[in-house]
Each structure stands twice: as structure tokens, then as C-alpha cells.
Design a protein that fits this description.
The structure is a homodimer. By secondary structure, chain A is mostly helical. Chain A has two domains: about 15-85, Arc Repressor Mutant, subunit A (Orthogonal Bundle); about 85-215, Orthogonal Bundle (Tetracycline Repressor, domain 2), CATH 1.10.357. Chain A has eleven helices and no strands. The radius of gyration of chain A is 18 Å and the shape is globular. The interface of A and B includes residues 144, 172, 182, 190 and 213 of A. The structure holds a DNA duplex. Chains A, B: This is TetR family transcriptional regulator. Chains A, B: Keywords: DNA-binding, Transcription, Transcription regulation.
DNA sequence: CCATCTTTTGAGAGTTACTGTCATTTGACA
DNA sequence: TGTCAAATGACAGTAACTCTCAAAAGATGG
């Protein structure tokens, strides 16, 4: 193989999945890789903040991070991945699956989401805000987001399927995951648009209340 | 101005909006433009069917349609737009808005959707199937779809906002539009995946039933 | 510490989607 | 028929990727 794996997160326990990911003993090589990845991302965000997303070229980012453009693409398959990739997807699935068995799916999602967001906010509130705002403002990113593995829809579908203990999701599962996923995305984007000043847990509650009562308010 | 407008659909009445678009007296220039547009799309679909989306270059398409690459980009802003652009968005908004005033929004959407799909199926069933299947299979397309103006989410949001007679959509409207829009997209994609053999009206009914009862089945 | 093996990196060349400009052509219209 | 605006094509450029190959650097066994 010729490329460093794109950060396959170690399967984290349900206790504090994010924290767990920050530990783990690392070889020198691994540490260097991680550092390179962080440097690239940091420099990229700096440049993007100064010049905007479209005006910042990969070559500039590579130069600022002191790596070759080739190396940039070894760490991020596309420029968009800079903003969109996320290491916490497995944690979200775990969080949903570790909810009590009989609980309605909607509630499991809500609680898992609130728990995960609380942790994310503690550790990297600012970065999350920047990323979400970019996601909302840059068309290419908003577009791409849907397809990447980190979109909520796919997470929910995986969780639903596993919870039911089946291999292939049913039609109803697909529809459910699509709807809840989109609502989740919209919720965090709205939070970011408000500058992160609102209580995100409260927003999540409002969202799920709408879903739960079948949109009867409209 | 230097470029032909990308098919701004004439505002169609609620009667039979699609049919209305197919009539209208056209000047020679307009007819030629329309023909060029159709030729490009037809040749593109042919090449894509033979070689796949990624392996088909814009230059090839332009050559096959006997226009210059410049002209290609005057008709389709991006290669993706070949597959994704859709002339019927205004018709969908109209269809929702022309439902009875007191009707629950969910039902208005359902009926509007079924009505529009029925017409689409009559006129261009095959093309619709091809497009949907491409949309589902080609990552770049699936990604891009969300951002373009033709995605259901934006349509529903517009309809909701206008129906309420306000300027800015509320938080609840955004969440509602996101959820219903995603469910709609998933529904038609599922239909296409089944090769169009299932009754799409029935699928739509199942989808909206799930939404209506608050996902209590999960 | 050294030799060797594997992973990571950089250099460079090539492809493709797209942008902008400008001169030429072609339909519209009086 | 002459004039104007819209449509087209040729061409040059940019930037995001892809591929290949050789050099550098960490891992590993002696």
C-alpha cells in the first residue's frame, strides 16, 4: 500500500468514545502522520479564513503546511474532505446502539445526538462552528456533504439495521433514516448559523418534537 | 448577455403545468436552442450509457453533439447539470400551493407529489428512470444533487413559507422541509432502484404514512 | 550501531472540468 | 437589404486531481 490510511478510528467504547480516541499509544510514525494531518488542516483553515474557500488552492495549503501537493492528496482525498471528514462516526453509531433496547428509535437518536454533541462542544467547539459554517456557505461543500460517509443519514440507517438485527435495511428504515438524518443536519446547521449562541440541546429537542408528532404543526 | 439562459421555465398554470411547457410558440432561434440542448443531452446519455459517467468527457459529448466545448458549457453550467437539471420545479411548488387551504401540509405534499409524478411518468418515464439511476450510482451526482435548485427540500421550504404568507421561514419550517424533502428523494430513488416496476404512488403513500405517525414503527 | 525492509514523501508529467476573451457567424427585425 | 443582438468556436489559462518512480525516513532483526 502506498497511502496512509485516512484515519480509521479505533472502535471506541460507549463510555467516552471521543476521549478514548485521543489516547492510545502511538508509534513515532503514527505520531508524525497525525501531526502532518493536523498541520495541513490547521493551515488550511487559516488560509480559508483569510481568503475564502474557493480562493484557497491546494498548492497554497500544501506550501503553508510544508508538504508537497502529492502529500496533501494522500491525507485528504479531495479538498472538500478537509472540511467534511469527521472521525466520530463510529462513536455516533455506538451511542445510538447502546441506548435501552425497547426505547423508540426517535428517542434513541435524540439522546445519542445530544450526548455526542455535548462532548464535541467541550473539546472543539470553535472548530466545529467554523466547519459547519463553511459547510453551509460554500456550495461545493454543502453539496458534497451528503455523499460522504459522515452524513447522519447513513449513520442512522446503519444503526437502525443493526438494531433490528437484519442484513438489509427495509424500505421503512431507509425512509426513516433519510428523514431523521436530514432533520439532524438542518438542526446543527441552524445552530451554526446562529453563531452557536443558542442551546443546541434545546434545538435538538424542538426538532425531534416536530418529527414525533408527525408534522402536525404545519 | 452572452449565454443562453439555462431554461427558465415559463410560469405554468396549475392546470397541467408540464403540458403547458411543451406548447408555446417558439421563434426559430428558440427552436434551434432547444434542439441543441436536446441533442447535447441525448448524445451525452448515449455516451454515458456506453462508457459510464466518469469515462465520458465533456469534449466527447461536445464532439458527438457537433458543438464546441464552449457551447456545451453555455447550455449546461457543469457536466453534472446534464443529469440533474430539471425543468419542473415551479410546477411542483404550484402543485403544493394549489391544494386546499386547510389541508395538513404533509397531505398537500403527498398529493402534489403523486400528481406530478403521474404526469412525469406519462411523458418521460424512461428518461426519468435513467436519470434517477445515475443519480443514485454516480457519487459525484448523488452529492451534487442536494445543492442544486431542484432538490425537494428547497421546494418544500418555498411552498411552506409562501403558504404561511411570511418572508423568512421559521425554524420549524426548515426542519419540516428537510425531513419531508429527504424522504421524497429517498422514495423516488428507491423506486428507480427497483427498476420502476413498483407502483410509485403506493411507495409515496407508504413514505408519508411513516412521516405522519411520527416514526412510531421503529 | 548497522543493514535491510517498508512506509512515507516529493517531483514531475498528464488529464479533465471549467473560465474568460475575442472575433466570426447567424437569426431577428425594420 | 442592412443593422443589431444573440450564439458560436477557437484559444489560452487555471486548478483539482491521478500516476509513476525514485529518494528519504522510520521500523526491525542482528
Amino acid at each position: 500500500m502506498n497511502a496512509p490510511q485516512s484515519a480509521t478510528a479505533p472502535p471506541a467504547g460507549p463510555g467516552n468514545p471521543i476521549q478514548a480516541m485521543l489516547e492510545a499509544p502511538l508509534s513515532l510514525r503514527e505520531r508524525k502522520k497525525l501531526k502532518t494531518r493536523q498541520t495541513i488542516r490547521r493551515e488550511a483553515y487559516r488560509l480559508i479564513a483569510e481568503q475564502g474557500y474557493e480562493n484557497t488552492t491546494v498548492d497554497q495549503i500544501a506550501a503553508a503546511a510544508e508538504v508537497s501537493p502529492s502529500t496533501f492528496f494522500r491525507y485528504f482525498a479531495t479538498k472538500e474532505d478537509l472540511v467534511l471528514t469527521d472521525e466520530y462516526d463510529p462513536a455516533m453509531i455506538d451511542a445510538v446502539l447502546s441506548r435501552p433496547a425497547g426505547e423508540p428509535f426517535l428517542r434513541s437518536c435524540r439522546e445519542a445526538l445530544i450526548g455526542l454533541l455535548r462532548q464535541l462542544l467541550e473539546h472543539e467547539r470553535e472548530e466545529l462552528l467554523v466547519r459547519l459554517r463553511l459547510t453551509k456557505d460554500v456550495p461545493a461543500l454543502r453539496a458534497r456533504m451528503i455523499d460522504t460517509g459522515n452524513e447522519p443519514q447513513r449513520l442512522y440507517l446503519t444503526a437502525l439495521t443493526r438494531r433490528a438485527g437484519v442484513r438489509e435495511p427495509t424500505y421503512a428504515m431507509r425512509i426513516t433514516a433519510a428523514a431523521i438524518g436530514a432533520a439532524t443536519t438542518e438542526t446543527v446547521l441552524q445552530w451554526a448559523e446562529g453563531g452557536g449562541t443558542e442551546d443546541i440541546a434545546e434545538l435538538v429537542h424542538r426538532t425531534f418534537a416536530i418529527l414525533e408528532d408527525g408534522f402536525s404543526g404545519s
